[in-house]
Write a structure and sequence with these properties.
alpha/beta; Rossmann fold; 2 domains; seven-stranded parallel β-sheet; about 45% helix
């Protein structure tokens, strides 16, 4: 029960990873307020969560479009009114957006992807951090992913938005220094969720042969289990990770379980952050 007595808001929680995170948070003792755009799916997940919740645990739900700041503010206010306090925010809502070369994608769809994936994180953080600063405590977990650290040709809106999430995470962690608020982003790994199905449906003509072949292999092999990313989220939401902040952590590849023993070393380094690579970093001496 690592989250007993804590309260978490989880966006995009009506399916896939968001639903898995919400389920484990409830099992770990947290009260949860889940949101997503699809109300019917959201209420179905709410019923499932209530079945695994314990006595005194609340599960609340609200249909919210995180790209709409007014709806986000309403969500935050409703959560605080229902629980009196919110300790954890998981910004999971996100989409791949348009797929194809930059000259062919719809500009409106491209911008909408930025609004959901990046502005949605900004809105949620903006309106919850005020509350967390008053309480001198908070845990914010932003879903970033591989799109933040490597180019993704033909999925440019997704890649740009996720890189933005990683840099926003680092920046807000600096702003919240001294307030007991830890803010991190995570890469959950290549998951077999609806996003993978969207890539396969789009086909190689939209996403490129290399990415499409990788998606086919991932579908066949099963991808990274949801539980891997969920476990990291529980760690970052719990007191185990106190002091670990401003990092982009891979659920699959990084030794994050050892971070509590490396807090001071981590704080003084740029490990698990986005940084520019210079020639000297690669052992080259260019004029």
């Amino acid at each position: 029960m690592k989250l007993k007595g804590r309260v978490a808001i989880i966006t995009g929680a009506n399916q896939g990873l968001g639903e898995a995170i919400a389920t484990e948070f409830v099992r770990q003792g947290a009260g949860v307020f889940i949101c997503a755009r699809n109300k019917d799916k959201l209420l179905a997940v709410k019923e499932k969560l209530e079945q695994v919740s314990g006595r005194g645990q609340k599960v609340c739900a609200m249909a919210v479009d995180v790209s709409n700041e007014a709806e986000v503010e309403k969500l935050i206010n409703a959560s605080i009114a229902e629980f009196n306090h919110v300790d954890i925010l998981v910004n999971n809502a996100g989409i791949y957006g348009p797929m194809g070369s930059i000259e062919k994608v719809d500009s409106g769809d491209w911008v909408k992807t930025i609004e959901i994936n990046l502005c949605g994180v900004f809105y949620c953080c903006k309106h919850i951090i005020v509350h967390m600063k008053k309480n001198n405590y908070g845990k914010i977990i932003n879903l970033s992913g591989g799109g933040a650290t490597a180019p993704l040709p033909f999925i440019s809106a997704y890649a740009a938005s996720k890189a933005g999430v990683a840099r926003l995470t680092e920046t807000l962690a600096g702003e919240c220094n001294g307030f007991g608020i830890d803010i991190n982003s995570i890469a959950p790994g290549a998951l077999n969720t609806r996003l993978l199905d969207e890539v396969l449906f789009a086909g190689p003509q939209a996403v490129g042969n290399d990415f499409y072949e990788k998606a086919l292999k991932q579908k066949k092999d099963g991808g990274v289990p949801l539980e891997v990313g969920v476990e990291l989220c529980v760690f970052l939401a719990s007191s185990e990770s106190d002091g670990v902040t401003g990092r982009l952590i891979s659920a699959k590849w990084d030794s994050w379980k050892s971070l509590p023993n490396r807090r001071q070393e981590l704080t003084k380094s740029d490990i698990y952050t986005l940084r520019r690579i210079t020639p000297e970093d690669r052992g080259k001496k260019w004029d």
